[in-house]
């Protein structure tokens, strides 16, 4: 076991002994925490009478005490420090934003301080809650990393909390995409560093490579290069991996952790010529299913049959001498088949300015800097008749599960931990504790509506939206893909319905679209970009009209995605509603459960009324897809463990 895992275990063990409840499944907060909250509130009240300089010296005094105490905050042995830190943060929040922490947010802070995952319902105010454990651990001076699922959210959270941290004299930085190593180093030198989860992981990889390269350099080489005025390569950015607080923890630690972080280096030494990818594509187009290849859409796999393999091998392009050194011809053809049958434009990728860009399936965000590996990117470029880019060598690779284990402590927050508690414990040793809501939810989940065809489903979504918008309700329509958002937008435009589109392709700024989405009668069509973390604030007219209505237009691969999308409405006790629309033609249903598609078709009612049995089957299908992904991650981690053990055995021998 990694040593950091042991240190985290001891923190959790002390929390367990204090709370006195078995750490299995999702836990409730122990009533004892309420006593601590009273202490915090009392102390915060006394701090409210202090002037700015006095508050700052109270913060400095705590910093000094905690640094001298050494080992960092420990929830049982240093409870007085925790209470003082929370009270200071609460007072700084009040002064900077006018908000007072709710009791449930203090509660969340205590749970997070112990290094567990706090399940805090959507819209309950996780952003400001993160400041409590962040400040607490920042006093130690070893750096706190606050990660979330994308750059938009990390920058928003950084900007929201910057004045709070500044009031307490803590420095804070943000990892901007495309920042120079020097800018990154400055951000990491701060007491607190905000950024998307993947950015912390990539910086870790870059640092590890630099450390390894340094170790192989002859003594005095760096000094000599400096004297000669030769720029050094990448220099280490991160200080140490002390504490990570992960917002949207299920997205960062589970969904994104399905694939490892891979750092590409320069182009391969023996490049494949662009024409070979085109030949592979022509070959793929001449093949037939099931004679030559088998397609498994539900597992996103394609494989040549023995007959197909023979046919393909017989037509190996002889001119391509380097091909055998880099990638088997049959694999190139399989890539081309996958590009043709499993990768769709405006779903898995977009094409803009002649460039192929990957769409993150979980966040709906477009990532121009990412590429698919092992020639897949080039196969899709060939399919789209784009200039073929060079394949990159893999420089470094780490699973997110392994990377997170390098932190001394990890805590997480999400509205959707339930259902993932087993995985959070298995891979990250993180128990889940559920925090109650500040106010009872006023949200309504309307029954699922199921249609025979996509066309009928679209008509129903549009009719429903128009009716609600006429009554003054703002409506957010969540689509699974960019393609679907485009199709819906075209229909709305054709009917003269004013609407905004948030899918990463639009030119309008995301923040502006989000700011308007809660205004009465506003219609917004969005991909999963708006499905998580997005805070849509209502105006009074919208609240009177029933609050935000959210419609999901397709079966999503996970119930957590649905719950997050639904969570854009009915936040902070506001009214709101949510409804799911599906059709027998939905790609996920078609790919995973043909029988369910047939049942939806047979039972389809023009109004979309959906029998409970079908709604249950839809839920079960999501669970099946989820379980497959859990198994995929388990296998990936097992493979990674094996790779690491082989590498360490080789290193020992060398
Ligand atoms: N103590 C508070 N007092 C008043 N408003 C608050 C308080 N805490 C949070 N809010 C407001 O509640 C709204 C929701 O907060 P936030 O976006 O942080 O929720 P969340 O839990 O992160 O939601 P999601 O799960 O969707 O990410 C924001 O507009 C925020 O300003």
UniProtKB/TrEMBL annotation:
It comes from Roseiconus nitratireducens. GO terms for cellular component: cell envelope Sec protein transport complex; cytosol; plasma membrane. This is Protein translocase subunit SecA. Residues 461-622 form the Helicase C-terminal domain. The keyword Metal-binding does not apply. Pfam families: P-loop_SecA, SecA_DEAD, SecA_PP_bind. It catalyses: ATP + H2O + cellular proteinSide 1 = ADP + phosphate + cellular proteinSide 2. Its EC number is 7.4.2.8. InterPro entries: Helicase_ATP-bd, Helicase_C-like, P-loop_NTPase, SecA, SecA_CS, SecA_DEAD, SecA_motor_DEAD, SecA_preprotein_X-link_dom. It is found in: Cell membrane; Cytoplasm. CDD domains: DEXDc_SecA, SF2_C_secA. It comes from the Bacteria. It is an enzyme of class 7 (translocase). It is a peripheral membrane protein. Belongs to the SecA family. Monomer and homodimer. Part of the essential Sec protein translocation apparatus which comprises SecA, SecYEG and auxiliary proteins SecDF. Other proteins may also be involved. GO terms for biological process: intracellular protein transmembrane transport; protein import; protein targeting; protein transport by the Sec complex. ATP binds at residues 105, 123-127, 535. The keyword Heme does not apply. Part of the Sec protein translocase complex. Interacts with the SecYEG preprotein conducting channel. Has a central role in coupling the hydrolysis of ATP to the transfer of proteins into and across the cell membrane, serving as an ATP-driven molecular motor driving the stepwise translocation of polypeptide chains across the membrane. Residues 15-622 form the SecA family profile domain. Keywords: ATP-binding, Cell membrane, Cytoplasm, Membrane, Nucleotide-binding, Protein transport, Translocase, Translocation, Transport. GO terms for molecular function: ATP binding; protein-exporting ATPase activity. Residues 107-286 form the Helicase ATP-binding domain.
